[in-house]
Amino acid sequence: MTDPATPDRPRRLRLIISLAAAGLVLLAFVAVGVYGLLTGPASRTPPDPGSTSRPGTSTPTPGGPASPGTPTLPPLPDTKDPEVFARALAQALFTWDTFTTLTVQDHRAVILQAADPTGEETPGLIGDLGNYLPSASTWRSLQEYRTAQTLSIDRLWVPDQWDQAVEAADGQVADGLIAYTVEGTRHRTGVWFDEPVASEHPVAFTMFLSCPPATAQCVLLRLSQLDNPLR
After folding, report:
1. For residue 62, what is the DSSP state?
2. Do the domain assignments include residue 47?
3. For residue range 90-123, what is the model confidence (pLDDT) as tens digits?
4. Which residue stretches belong to region Disordered (predicted)?
5. Which residues contact 210 (CB under 8 A, 6 or more apart)?
């Protein structure tokens, strides 16, 4: 959040007032606490010309130690296409397997590597991820049951409430900022008393992204509350 003495503060307050007049969209901004969304990242960070993807994290063979040459957790793509990035991000948020030597911090790191390059939104995003990824203690408990999780996406779209927010902002939302809402099903598998078990739960959430021209490639700014998306 900017210092109250800076010139951006009155402009942001005017935008909040306009969103309040628009009705439906104000609570969405308050829920995620994203003041940086109103103007976008402060600078543009060009990608490394020698790299086509963000670095990943070592993935061990299930049940065994990591070793040189093992696969890596898929990094989020360096792409200018917001829908491609949003789909990859949704999978990264919900796809994990505790029956490996990976930790939940490894999965969190992959997502944070694709966060706002200015770092302005990163503290808020770290808090958001606490609602999506298990805590370290929960991860250890899930390991006892060999719990794994995947996501099937039923629908991914730019919500009407985001379009309403942009229209109400009257040009004050930076070009390239966009929101995607995901509806899908979270699938979990595991072992209970040596018997395989499975469960399914519907999930819905909204991702707030910054893509060109605001940033050199698409990055993640913030996440809505889980199961409290924009519609």
Report:
1. T
2. no
3. 999 999 999 998 999 999 999 999 999 988 889 9
4. 41-81
5. 40, 41, 116, 174, 176, 177, 218, 219, 221
DSSP readout, 167-223?
HHHTT-SPTTEEEEEEEEEEEEEEEETTEEEEEEEEEEEEEEEE-TTSSSS-EEEEE
Segment holding 157, helix H or strand E: strand 148-157
Alpha-carbon torsion (134, 135, 140, 144), positive or negative: negative
Q: Which amino acid is at 139?
A: W
Q: Which residues contact 211 (CB under 8 A, 6 or more apart)?
A: 80, 81, 82, 85, 176, 177, 178, 217, 218, 219
Q: Is the pTM of this model over 0.85?
A: no
Residue 184 lies in a domain: yes
Here the tokens at position 133 are: 């990824």
Answer yes or no: is 31 within a domain.
yes
Structural domain of 127: 8-42+75-223
Q: What is the domain count for the chain?
A: 1
Residues 6+ apart with CB under 8 A from 58: 66, 70, 72, 73, 102, 106
